[in-house]
Give the backbone structure.
Amino acid sequence: MSDELQLSIEKLVYGGDGLSHADGNTVFVPYVIPGEEVRASVKTRRNKVTWAKLDEVVRSDPRRQKARCPHFGTCGGCHYQHIPVVSQVEFKESILRETLSRLGRIQWEGPVQIHSAEPFGYRNRAQWAFRDARPMALGYFLPESSVILPIDTCPILSPALHKAFERLQDLARAGHMPEELQEIEAFVDSKDEKIALNVAFERFPKPAAEIATVFRNAVPQLESLLLLDQSKDRFELTGPGYLMHDAGGFRFRVSHLSFFQTNRFLIEDLLHTMIAGAKGELALDLYSGVGFFTLPLGKSFKKVISVDANLAATTDLYANAEAAGVTVTSHNEHAEEFLRKTQERPDFVALDPPRAGLGAGAATALLGLGAPEIRYLSCDPSTLARDLAILTGTAKKKPEEATVADAAVRYEIAEVHLFDLFPQTFHIETLVRLRRVP
């Protein structure tokens, strides 16, 4: 196969690329739309799979549009700015259905309920790299690379976050950032007013108090600052150590090392959809974080148990529950460990695992609890398909692998929701409502 390719794009796949075929090889190429004819060049090959670079769109789809960001197509952070957001969501729904079918043998014929909002200015958290940047400036890593692309703008950031970035970038370009700086992570509160920074150094170039003064002068909205010296594994904190987020009538303390939902426009919708109609004696919230679902569940259940392995998030959850007047039984441990030993029998289970999903062990243990209803929020359709195959009984098993739980408990899908939490990117957030089959 030649290094120069003429391709007809067949479909988009999870990961942001378009799929095509050439000379018996499967070819993946980014920044395309199904039906387009393009010219591309080979980057890498492995067996019968080729990854290519888009060189030219020979025949474009009528939907193709000019990207809003001047760095689109280079920085790799966004994948779909050349596609109108309405079409982006349509492609994501198609990818979700195909992934569930191909990897989980799940044929969902019902509607996928779409939840979307403003496609720009939505991110309340971002990371900017600095180490080894040439010229010295803040930026994002190029795709599959340790090379940093300096950027001047990022239209998916919230206004306050973007303003903070501009000030920090001015500092970097003026040569006032120490070379020992590695990266900056920034996040804002729900009002898009107060800023918190996690600033990592290879080693502190000067006393922490002097470094803190530099960042406070650069970012007037700075509320809390965490400085990390990675050479000595130590940190310095100035400020309260957290920001506050309001959602669903609750206030959530979110510390520097805790997770909170990133799309500021869809937080309320996500919360209400996850807990809608849920009530009973006992609710179990797995991967509970700072208590985003735990607190409202505490108002509709007599008892709520939360489980999360992140100690910072668990500490935040205790503070948030106390402030809300909600009693929570919290376990600071991995979900699989908890599920393997618990004797609880919840009426309702909410789970929001990381990209790796539940995994076979935790999914099988969850089956054994026999909860009447499970609501699974996933950020990766492939691991979701794997876990749903176990929960719904579509997973292939050898006879000797069957368990009592397999025969006694099985779930069916009642609803599927697609939350477009990351417009302009390939990422898909899926909320699946499962009910136990009688």
Observations:
- Residues 85-104 form the longest helix (20 residues).
- The first strand starts at residue 4 and ends at 8.
